[in-house]
Amino acid sequence: MNFLFNEEQTSLGETVGQVLADFAALTAPDPSRDSEAEVWGALAELGLFSLLVPEEHDGVGLAFVDLAPSIEALGSGLASPLIASTLVATEAIKRLGSSDQRAKLLPEIAIGETAIAIASAELGRGKDPFFAECRLLDGKLSGKKIAVAGADVAQELLVIARTESAPVLVLVPTDAAGVTITAHSDIDPSAGLCRVVFDNVAVAAGQQLARASIDALDTLVDLGATVHSGMAMGIAEVMLRRSVAFASQREQFGKPIGSFQAIKHRCADLAVAVEAGKATSHYAFWACSENSEDRSGAASAAKAYCGEIGCNACNDAIQVHGGMGFTWELGLHRYLRRAQVIEHAVGSRAWHYDRVVTEALAAREVENAAHRDAA
Known about the structure:
By secondary structure, this protein is an alpha+beta fold. It has helices spanning 7-21, 36-46, 68-76, 81-96, 99-110, 214-249, 261-290, 295-320, 332-344, 349-374, and strands at 116-119, 135-137, 140-149, 156-162, 167-173, 179-183, 193-202, 208-210, 251-252, 255-256.
């Protein structure tokens, strides 16, 4: 069995990376959003947003796993998190949306006209993506969301809310009456994190993506966690590449510093971590694509593990570069900032590790019950 990506999947990821490389502002020392609209337009022209859209809705109809190399390219290029959120929302709409929702939204997404920001985190329990004090009662949505990437430029919000009986996913236009969006002051200004307040926003029945379904929330969290794991590995790979390049060129005592044991071992450990993290992330992409039984466990394992690797890789790269690694001009801080945002998005590392343990124990109980029944 071949677990490697094929030529088309790899080539697509490389093309996305080349497009992002044309926008130097994305990875420049100053964390601005000046080129965000131009980047979105370039990726829309490339056809990135049509890849997950089925052919009957004017898309390409690729599987979720096919985009893994492209997601890594988005991470390594420090592209706007709104791009990744829109791809996650596309897959969620494809799986969970009604025929009318798919017919209306997917063609608009495919051509890049509709961007969708995912609103899940809230104050108080921001580490738990399922937590929702945001309420949908009698067709009115009220509550607050934080750290909503790109909400100020998106056309739609995909909101995790709660009715009297169960959680729901709701699509809300950003220009709807009662929606107030304000930018956060946060560690990574280029991520475009926003605070969103809903004040008795009217929500029609057709705006609910999946009515009263915990399985729908599981699906959204699994997709989001997996995509963020891919972006984290994109960052980690850049940090590895830059660390090795610097260690090969920078000389001390007449030798490249990469020949010294302390630097050599740090780079070697980072290379091992990157390979292990990518394998974990790639499996999560496959598990989500195939909707396998261990999808949730695989997605949470990837999110927690890869998020940790991404942050550690940035810290290792700064250490390898020595004193200049801490300077603003070198720009390594840009990757560390984004890695921190990714690590805390769609649930914290601790929450996802707890979920992995819960999933593993549940699977073991099912297995033990099967053995008892067989006996």
